[in-house]
Design brief:
With 173 residues, the protein is an alpha+beta fold. It is 45% helix and 20% strand. The chain has 2 domains: 55 residues; 100 residues, no CATH class. InterPro entries: Uncharacterised_Ycf51.
Amino acid sequence: MLSPEQFLQATGWFAIGTLVFGGVTAIAFLLKWGIRFRLVGATGFMGVLTVGFLGLSFQPLVRTVIPGAVPYETVFDSGSAQVVIAVPNAITETELEATLRQAASNLLKPSRLGGMGQVKPTIRARAIVHQPGISELVYVGQVTPGTGNSAEGKAPVIEIYTDQLAKINQAES
């Protein structure tokens, strides 16, 4: 997968190509070539590609991998402030913390952060405890973005519900 730096480099090449197409289009209009209107379309398309590659250079497309994290599945995403991930029942507290840190890195993007007075985005981790005739959703932890200007203040705030974690581990055995 391409990195943001490679997309930025491709943006430069596409920008040069767009300028070249623009120059050829200008010459075509001055010399009244028959393909001048097709060149306008090609130049416009090159401009769209350039802007698209520029957009891809801002946001990394690769997922962060935190050592010790277990695979999770996103089961609900409101698109703004609420995300729920499913974790396996046989998860330890350290694995849950690493998984929540990885989910925060992958899912808490600046596009989710609202303005003043809006709800802070929250990622909640849940497991399912199966009992005869009923299945219960058990929320074992959550992570929210940190507030503050320092590097420590921007670190995500992780909460682990140890009583709920014990409940799913007890049901598993």
